[in-house]
């Protein structure tokens, strides 16, 4: 989900990572669902990428 919206917003991993204050490697692991993150970081991702609530709920239910 994160990668889909990052690409939709025409951002590189490096650009998004810098904007939300995490390393590009951390973002890469999040996109691959290999790592959990803090709620505050997830909120920044959602806000920055304008991810709709419905998508967030689908993601959380998985």
Summarize the structure in words:
By secondary structure, the chain is mainly α. It has a single domain (2-61), classed as 434 Repressor (Amino-terminal Domain) (Orthogonal Bundle), CATH 1.10.260.40. 69% of the residues lie in helices and 0% in strands. It contains five helices and no strands. The mean pLDDT is 91.
What general form does the structure show? globular
Over all CA atoms, what is the radius of gyration?
A: 11 Å
Structural class: mainly alpha
| Count of individual helical segments | 5
Number-wise, the strands total 0
CATH topology: 434 Repressor (Amino-terminal Domain)
Percentage of β-strand residues: under 5%
CATH architectural arrangement:
Orthogonal Bundle
Average pLDDT taken over every residue: 91
Please name the fourth-level CATH homologous superfamily: lambda repressor-like DNA-binding domains
- How far apart, in Å, are the first and last alpha carbons? 11 Å
The total domain count is 1
Q: Main β-sheet, in a few words?
A: none
């Amino acid at each position: 989900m994160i990668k889909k919206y990052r690409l939709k917003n025409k951002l590189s991993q490096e650009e998004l990572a810098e904007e939300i204050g995490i390393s590009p490697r951390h973002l890469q692991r999040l996109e691959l669902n290999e790592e959990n993150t803090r709620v505050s970081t997830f909120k920044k991702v959602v806000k920055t990428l304008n991810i709709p609530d419905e998508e967030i709920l689908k993601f959380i239910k998985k």
